[in-house]
Request: fold
Amino acid sequence: MLLRGEPIGPSSQPIQAVLFDKDGTLSVSEPMLHALAQARVFHALRLLQERHPEMAQEALADCDALLHRAYGLGEDGVDPAGTTAVASRQHNLISTATTLAQVGLGWPEALSLAEAVFAATDALHGLGSAHKPVATEGLHDLVEHLAAAGLRCAVISNDEEAGIEAFLRSQGIDQHFQACWSAEHTPRKPDPGAVHALCHALGVPPDACALIGDANSDLRMARAAGVPVVLGYTAAWSQPPPLDPSFPRLQHWRELRLAP
Ligand SMILES: [Mg+2]
Reply:
């Protein structure tokens, strides 16, 4: 395998499979995540006002600011290392409830309000979302190049399986992916056991795989799982993710090719 024309990975063991993260790696998801985080803030404040008309404006303003920070939500985008970008729905729900507890709600109420916020906004992401995720530039060429050389491809994501499959189908690349590991599988990423289980499903040992992701949690998981080629992908975000510099990076899919 060549990165910008230079060989990477062990010379003894050819790479047989590439494991891709989905959001922020295969797909440009920032516009959808930005809209989702904004909607979660909007509904949290709306429900808080409905259920607590006595709450002071300053407390609502505090809640607004705390939610923005908890979600990594900025004016034009989301923090690529923040909870909206990286964490599962369940973890985002808990961080929402924690924020509501910080402005004075008891935990049972904070949790139930957070659940109502997520129920009101779930339609904005995943299946049926108005923001259709687009593939990152050059992805189709890379996937066809890998498939033509007989490599296997897989997705390792904290999205649900239906969301992963819908994305691959919408891009016409589903036939090139032989397996996926989703939020419904156990253990989930970033547990290195997720990589081992996916490799087992693919029939390829971890030391014959490459893994590419846009979060340190993906990259460190892959290293801990014994994957020899671990690459950070940075092109899907308006603000590049703060990746651990010990991992080589990739700015465009054309930089990755197989040795002839
Ligand atoms: Mg990602």
In short: The chain has a mean pLDDT of 94. The pocket of magnesium ion is lined by residues 21, 23-25, 213-215 (CB under 6 Å). The two ends are 9 Å apart (CA to CA). The chain has two domains: 2-29+133-257, 30-124.
